[in-house]
Amino acid sequence: MAALGLSTRALNALERVNVVAVRALLRTPIAHVSHMRGVGNKTRRELVDVVRQLAARFPDVEPEPPPTVSGEPAVTSLDLIVRQLVPDRQARDRSSIASAGDEAQDDAREPRVLRRLLGLEDLPRPAAMGWPSQTVVAGAEGITRARVGQIAGKARERWSRNRSVGAVRDDVAALLEREGGVMTAVELREALLLLRGSTREGAQRARVGTGAVRAACEVERSLASARWVVRRAGDVVLVARSEALADWAERLGREADRLAATDPLPSPARVVEALQATAPPPGVAPVAPTRLVRLAAAASDTAAVSSRLELYPRGMSAERAIKLAHGALLVPELTEQQIRERVIVRYPEAGGLPRRPELDGLLATTGLPFAWVAEAGVGRGAYVLRRPEPLSSSGTPPIERLPTVHHPPLDASPEVAACRQLEERLQRSAGAGGFLVLTAETRRLRDAERELARRFAVEVRSLEAELIRRMREEAARSNVTWDVVLRADAVPADAMDLRLLVLVDRALGALESALPTDATLLLTNSGLLGRYDRIGFFQRLRDRIDLRGDPTRPRLHGVWVLVPTDDPAALPAIDGRAIPVIGPGEWAHVTEAWLENRHRGAKNGVPAGASA
Prior knowledge:
- By secondary structure, this protein is α/β, with parallel strands linked by helices.
- It folds into 4 domains: 2-57; 166-304, no CATH class; 318-385, no CATH class; 414-595, 3-Layer(aba) Sandwich (Rossmann fold).
- 48% of the residues lie in helices and 11% in strands.
- It is built from 27 helices and 17 strands.
- A 5-stranded parallel sheet has the order 10-11-12-9-15. A 3-stranded antiparallel sheet has the order 1-3-2, sandwiched between helices.
- A hairpin with an 8-residue loop joins strand 7 and strand 8 (382-385).
């Protein structure tokens, strides 16, 4: 082929479809050449011209379709693709294989070897990521590694002619392009399962995904112009567009292991800063922070990612997980299942929480002020908060609230004057209704929630808890197990299955319909709206207050949205997505001075902020 003087792109395109000799090119129908996938028009025209010239030079070579696997049409589902990877012959058990002749032994062993190589069948010792080496398979089968290599080579030749495997290879190349050029085999497996689907559940579903990825990689690495490389890094299998990107992913994994082992856990901002210090190869575009953290965790040996982009150790103790998630647990009443869900949502790879009554003791050990009340939770039992003081694991000092005085001074410092302005806005909004977004420093978010709930007649609702509950209900109504939903959610936000987002939209619709219309709502824990890119939900609520939405729907009295911020002057946002507010009249910052009641209080009989 090199003697034909073709361009590099043309040679690469032919090699990807296993056309590596002039005779093979002549036997390829010209219609197939002119419609090759992933090839530009200029390259197609170049190849068509060459085929015509060769046909005139060698008229005795008749074109025919490229060899394909008999009875193997192009399919989409990974279940069907994996079925095409292994011959239909059933592998017998090892005793019957041993009693057969040499040729019969090889014939009977081949499917079993391939199934084990692809991770579709168990090995005596499980391989990392379900990706065993040829040496491991050879040891399990009692044959030489060279023989496994022969079986794999024969299979690669067959898979290279399989149109469905070719489509999977194109999918892998596109996924690598989108995710910064490097992914782990597990990430590719989950992405392909979401993209192409499988009816399997649990471990069988994972095996199908792994088998498809392994077959695509086996074919690609046999090409001289492979679009990616595969590397084993300890127990992690990396798939990267270059060796340099694989090196970078390994370094990220080591840094993630170090960060996850830190006590206390570093903040999300510190995690991103540390990972960004591990520079990618020259010429590689910067990776988004969310993808950077998830790649580092996937490439690590011990790290996992929380919903807040923290890095924590896999299998982290239930006690530590509860301590770290305490901010989401400090609400007046929670059922046992709600506590479990709130912890799992934040730390999905932590150790499991025990059931009652062991959970009672664990909550007491962590300092959470809960008491189990059998009559709570609509008679089904629930944990009830006994006191409002939060557990502080971060060293943040508690708010020292000043006692209120009846006649605060008229003149005050600018700080106290700002508190009074905020007080007036809150009083007006609580009475007349309206839409108001309130920001508070992250370390004071729970203090703000408690003070607002104590001072004003608001109904506190955790959007995260409400949304998860509604999603569970909608999933059950659609006969979808919760495990399936969790798997669909365990991918980067920009790779989510549309079916998951449809489920989220249905759950939000049900949540909105159930909101009370006669009270001011204080909505907290809104992070999932940012993850699912559903910030527009707040616009719908505001429209129902202003009656600009559907006039047939009941009007909401008022909605307050409380969100964390690290910059009091910044517009309110969730996960980097701005909350739609119409001017400064629809948002305000809850200052620490307001939480300390300086605008209405006195210390040692002296009003706060009084002029000397």
